[in-house]
Fold these 2 entries.
Entry 1:
Amino acid sequence: MTHSTLPLFALLPSLVGAILILLTGERHRNLREFWTLAASVSKFAIIWSMLPMVLEGKVLGVEVLEIVPGVGLELKVDAFGLIFALLASGLWIVVSLYSIGYMRGLKEHAQTRYFFCFAMAIFGAVGVALAGNLLTLYLFYEILTVATFPLVAHKETEEAMRAGRKYLAYLLTGATLVLFSIVLTFSLTGTLEFTPGGFLSGTASKAILSLLFVTYILGFGSKAAVMPILEWLPSAMVAPTPVSALLHAVAVVKAGVFCVLRVILYVFGPKLLTDLGLWLPLAFFVSVTVIGANLLALAQDHLKRRLAFSTINNLSVIILGAALLSHDAVRGALLHIPFHGFMKITLFMCAGAIYVKTRQDLISTMDGVGRQMPFTMGAFALASAGLCGIPPVCGFISKWYLCLGAIEAKEVFFLGVFILSALLDAAYFFPIVYAAFFKPPKHDQIKPHFDDASPWLLVPIGITALGSMVLGLFPNLSLRFFDLAGQVMKAVLAGG
Amino acid sequence: MAELLAKYNYWIYALLLCVGFYGMMTKGNLMKKLIAMNIFQWAVIFYFISIGAKKGGTVPIIPGGHGGGHVVVEATSFINPLPHVLMLTAIVVGVATTGIALALLIKIYKRWGTLEEEEVLQRLRDRDEVKG
Amino acid sequence: MGIMAQLPALIVVTPLLLAFLVYLVGIFRPRLSYPLVLLGTSLSFIFSLGILYQVLHSSAPLSYHLGGWEPPWGIEYRIDHLNALVLAAVAAVAWLVVLFAKGLVDREIELQKQPHLYTLLLLEITGLFGITVTGDMFNLYVLLEIASFSAYALIAMGGRGAAFAAFRYVIFGTIGACAYLLSVGYLYILSGSLNMADLKGIIPGLLHSKALLVGFAFMVMGVGIKMGIFPLHSWLPDAYTLAPSAVAALLAPLFTKVGAYVIVRVTYGVFPLSFSVKDYPAAEALGWLAIGGVIFGCVMALAQRDLKRMLCYLIVAEMGYILMGVATGNRTGITGAVLHIVNDAFMMACLFTVVGAIHYVRGTRDLDDLKYLHIQMPLTSAVLVVGGLAVVGIPPLCGFFSKWYLILGAVEARRWGMVAVLLLSSLLNAIVFFRLIERAYLEVQPAEAFVPNGGTHLKVKLDSLPKGMIFSLLLLASALLFLGLFSGTIVKEIIYPFVNGL
């Protein structure tokens, strides 16, 4: 491990930014917005600067404090963490621009609290990405949960409060299970370091290790919204759209999936999981979510709820890919993390733009909105195509590898799951796009002439939509996701 | 059996302890509680003093022991002074506790006009201050 | 080094002498009494840090012979890593609470009576420090009673039902103290010694004796009453709720913690490690009591509407945690218990001061009256959040780390009931505190009275609280964070030397 203070500097901008935002307050809102943007850009820049070193195979690390004898508050930047960190910090810039437009457009209240919590949430998310051991991971994981609670309950209506409570109940219960797992792990092995290929081999009996695996998966799975612990995510759609966009399509749930994959690849390891035979039950377990979530998505009329279920589906797709443990499946899973992020955030931002412009959030009332907002709906169409796996949008690449991986693992059943999931995706995305462009507007809020969203909203949408396509054509461009995934494969699967 | 009876000091102390405890727990009048508390404390004091006693032992004062010099003494013929010393302190503590308790009782009586626990509780409940 | 060598005695003597001085001065100049109290607690805090420094840099515990008489005939003040840590924590919290108290005392007590309160406060602190530094079992009884008397009188200074609650406390407290005295008696009969270090050497030879067990049982019962262990806690909620706010803020965090220290000290510092675990299943029984206490405390806290009362039940739960750590019988659990003594002192002080501040500004302690708190009292609300999250156990705040060691210790001891209760109680605490946070921060659109122009014109000066209160609130909140971040250091440098010597 190469010692470097860069990981620490990568965390600081959002923390410092959060404090500055709090101190600046509503009176100097432009200055406050400036802090958000400055923090997000600097954060991304620092994280990006670590890319070349990590691609060479180095792992950058720093121990900040010995927080428990034997375990440090430790940051370690490996390829896997960098994928998530790049995604979270990069999209924070985009969503911050979007947030500013959205919040001002709707004249939302408590904006200082909003931007403060947002910055703290990113602090937590990147902390999760860069954590070097389970304890540090847990620390940032909890910060993430606490920071996002006020965002979920932002609207302060009855419904929002209920959603907030549900959010806390699910996530804190999950965190409790995780804590139990971590303590048990420490008690068994005396260490909590993430090791490529896992470090739990041979430390306890099959029964105990299996139990441990279950508690980890259920614990982290609450944040990753696997069935049956997923009800909090659709309820959380009551939050303002930028919150839904970044946090629930990218940061919070991706943190959950990230943690699950960390457990699979860096705590247990492919070899141990194969020996214990645990990958198969896990794969079945998430397959239920994959199909179930998509079926539920079909039944939703509320656009954001449908998107929420689509997210749930995609998250479990990622876990399924990792569970299959074959080269291409894991690669596909790793790639799907950022790719899905780009596509899903586009969709959420579009949904938000539609709401700002037309005050509509039900799909059945969105007929003809494509004529009013062609750019927005165009981006929507592009992103949803990607999610179904249609080239040249990036979703095609990750799904391709996932299917290849299923074949490689000789699991036709799961291949079928992937394909069925894609078909269902098409079944609930296509009608939206069709109705938006080809049906006459039903609702009088939807104008028949051009009146798209403000540039504050359109520019971010454009960036992520085009980004999705560019990543589809050149998956290694600038952010080098493809190579990073390769690094992870080398480290994890070569060892076992 | 004879051995058990020989340790009669323990029996006495245990009895007093129980009497005091019973009084504190079951009596409804605060003054009675206080008296019972005193009995409880005294039980402990008796216990300590009794363990220092010795058959045929004498008061632990060395005649002419002051003013330096060395005097040969047969330590076993004196009773143990330490428990007495400790209990002096404990008696003082007991007195202080009683004093505080009496002051509190005066305050309670002035305010509520009664020293019956049940009545005080009832009046407090009416003011919704003490939940039972 | 003159003064450094006298520190163990100085730290007890200073508040004692100042107590008398405050009373005398208070007859003529009541306003001078507070500065003297502040001086006393500041000095004590500095002394405690001096003692901590000394202990960390010497190989043997500090030993101070009162009156020059050698132990075990004389009374010895003996300070090792354990008491140095607890002493520093108690002194720090005492100082912070005294800093906080002036505003409340000025409001609630008339000027002529204030010196009385301050005198009693100093006597209380004398007692607490004394209990922490003494190495003699009987001396501990004396100091315990000094602290208790002061507590009885302090509590009775509150309005309305306080005298009655104090009386009940007198009854219970005396049972406790007498039980403790009895246990000292039993141990004395068996060993002929009152000195803790001396007993440590003698007891292993006595392990077959039933009287020893009885002595231990009485001790646990006695200190347990003082500490507020379930089910011996019933005096606690009324006493601390009805006491004046400043008094509750001092007593609630500290008195119970010092009691907890005594249990740790006697169970593991005087009796050998094997006593509670192998020889007699004391640890087993204590464990079940602890579990009961935690569940009882958490559930009752949920049911309360009065904030102060809610905190009192939480104290019962926190005492349960410490007892759990003691009951695991292994080094990790004991580490957790000791760390929790320190952490909880700060956490409870923080929360009680918040409630005191809210009472000062709004005159209410009711849960439902917290609306718009974050607008009227932003700093206080923030401190409430920090304190609440600490109790729930969110890292990097301190509460998480004591829970970590406790859970680890329980896992090591294979006591799955404890593990489950520790985890479950965190969730119950989360409900309690997030309910408060919700009320304070997230009420539906605020009324005009509080937020004209989206808060731009509302320049509430420092929450409308006096400077002392704000200062101490912020310091307490920061302490929670620092204790958390540096808990590894604390454990490694201070607690491990003690625990590994068992």
Entry 2:
Amino acid sequence: MQYKLIKSPLTGQINAVTIIGKNICIPFDPANTDYQNFKKEVLAGAELQDADGNVMTQEQANQFVGGLA
Amino acid sequence: MPIVLDGSLGVTTPMYNGSITANAVTPSVNMKNRIINGAMVIDQRNAGASSLASNSTYYLDRWGFFASQNNKFNIGQNLGSVTPPAGFTNYLGLNVASAVSVASGDYFSVAQKIEGFNIADLGWGTANAKTVTLSFQVYSSLTGTFGAVFRNSSNARAYPFTYTISSANTWTSISVTVVGDTTGTWNTNNSSGIEIWWNLGAGSTFSTTAGAWAAGNFTAPTGATSVVGTNGATFYITGVQLEVGSTATSFDYRPYGTELALCQRYYVQFLGSNAYEQLCIGMSSTNQNGYCVVPLPVTMRSTPTLTYSTVSTTLRWTQLDNSFNGTAIAIDQSSTKTPQIYLTVASGMTSYRTGFITANNSTSAYVGFSSEL
């Protein structure tokens, strides 16, 4: 699974993530099971891209996910 | 003197003293059945179409498939087109697309996860845990001993049980009574409370003794028939009911609108019924982004995930007489009641003008919101 962060055009804040190749957009909500799986999978090594499509290193990805609620 | 409802003579009311006794007539009880879409009527995602089953994916509303391997089963509403059992018009059907000889770490199940709020009164995890009875109708091309499991969401508690299908290709009524678990953690909030997994094949890692509560992550009783082991084998199920007590009572048919609303707490789909259906109304913020606030018909379990049809071929933004093909869609403000989404186009929109996300000459266009467990 490959994930890509999404930046809100209105606020400029990262507020969602998509799974590349799937028609899905996941909000950052701890009660959302897709969000729970996103965090689990990234921490387990799944690829995470920033909002511009650059692949984050595992360390960067872990740091980003670790800072989320 | 009590008022007696005897089911034949109506209500006799010599003098009402505040006591009502019901005889013969079973009064309607709200949410007697803790299973949602137990009659397999609601299929918002696929409208009766079948597909290959993938892990952690929902097909009929509220019914998920969970497995260690994808694409081994076909799954869909009324798959196989057999006659449903008396009193039902639909069933959840699976057949084996590619047989698997299960390894120790394999598991294949179809399941319903019940929200904690809807089982909070059962008191599971306490000394006052209530007994429940699960009933369902099942049909398979195989015969033998099959299995299912009551589980909690942390995969730490499980009650595997067996049931028998004696006649192949025949609907069989099953009823199982389970004494509630007095230990373990059983959520009573908006997360998963009780999960019931019907086993379709499992290895030794996920199998344990039937008929007793066990600590651990189990999806099957030891020795249960492996449906996935036989190419083309079928497994159909409907009329699923979970109720308090030690007796299976008649299936609790709910009005279609009620059942749909119950499902929409977990998934709702706005689907184009014509080629240019307007899916939601909003306003453009720039020449590239059109925003819609979508009032959901039911408050969802959690802020939902946005799902959608292929943007470039099925969705567009329409304002006045102009339309712009979509290039991307996303959720901006998450909400359990009124999420805000936006459609991005290449350019050309007029800013701050009312518009719509519409189907782009496509009857398969949709936006959906999912907060499944």
